[in-house]
Design brief:
The chain has about 300 residues and is mainly alpha-helical. It contains 18 helices and no strands.
């Protein structure tokens, strides 16, 4: 039986009746195939959709062995969305899920790319506050991208002023930018003050992230300041402004984008073309929806 056939057998049993997916079934399957193949088959089945009748017995079996974690967080095995679905199921059924994850990320010293992927997977958890100990540990990681990603997640989960200001004193611009981004969903005077301070940062990404934050706060001057950044002598600042226009989707940015379509740098022009295309598609969908809504309903 091939690996694909094992996945098919596991999937059919899981969808048919949860009671048939027993530890004995997995033991028998492991007698003819390697445990790694069976683990991949279970995770692939769980990744397809939540609510499969047999997902509970599968997750219980995986939890007993505990060796599923490296497979679950391997981007070559599952898509990000699939890994997120499977991780939520495993987390519900394995009391040691978070400790296993922390052990893998901090003690086994995987490459930075694996840690970043794992953080993307667990970001979908509803009770993400349970990740705080792991995030605090990763904020001391030797890799700056890991540190900045952990800082972003931590500031988003615990958006207190002291924590964010501590990150704003980091010499790493990526960490400062991610700390600012972590506050985008927070509407408060403290967040607004941090955005105002960060908007004066010399680094293009930090400053533009702060202006996006002010835009979300309802600051009327934020958009005009982004227009000014789009005329900045620095190529990186202009490119950051284009990214922000794409992020916000505000049609008022179209004239500035059209002006930047003749920028001296090729990569800026390419980004402008991409953002303008996205805005045109958005406007077309909006117009189509308005046209549909205006048409009389048939009796």
């Amino acid at each position: 039986m091939s690996e694909a056939a094992v996945e098919e057998v596991v999937g059919k049993l899981a969808e048919a009746e949860a009671a048939r997916v027993t530890p004995a079934f997995f033991r028998e399957l492991c007698e003819t195939h390697s445990e790694a193949v069976v683990i991949r088959a279970c995770l692939t089945c769980m990744a397809r959709a939540e609510g499969v009748p047999g997902e509970g017995p599968m997750a219980d079996w995986l939890a007993k062995g505990g060796v599923y974690v490296p497979v679950l967080f391997n981007p070559d095995v599952l898509t990000l969305a699939g890994a997120q679905r499977a991780a939520v199921i495993c987390w519900r059924h394995d009391p040691r899920f978070l400790s296993r994850l922390q052990q893998m990320l901090t003690e086994k010293q995987p490459p930075a790319s694996a840690i970043l992927y794992a953080l993307s997977v667990v970001s979908a958890f509803e009770q993400a506050g349970m990740l705080l100990p792991l995030l605090r540990t990763l904020m001391h990681h030797e890799n700056d991208r890991v540190r900045s990603s952990a800082a972003k997640a931590l500031c988003k989960l615990r958006p207190n002023r002291l924590l964010v200001e501590r990150q704003m004193h980091s010499p790493d611009a990526r960490t400062r930018a991610n700390a600012v981004e972590g506050l985008w969903g927070v509407k408060s005077r403290e967040a607004e003050e941090i955005f105002h301070t960060a908007a004066a940062d010399a680094h293009h990404r930090v400053a533009v992230n702060a202006l996006v934050g002010l835009y979300y706060q309802g600051d009327q001057s934020a958009f005009e300041r982004l227009i000014a950044v789009s005329r900045h002598p620095s190529t990186l600042h202009r490119a950051a402004a284009v990214w922000a226009f794409g992020k916000l989707g505000d049609p008022r940015a179209i004239p500035a984008l059209q002006a930047l379509s003749e920028d001296s740098r090729m990569f800026v022009r390419r980004k402008v073309a991409e953002v303008l295309g996205q805005m045109q598609q958005m406007q077309a969908r909006t117009a189509a929806q308005a046209d549909t809504a205006s048409q009389p309903t048939a009796a």
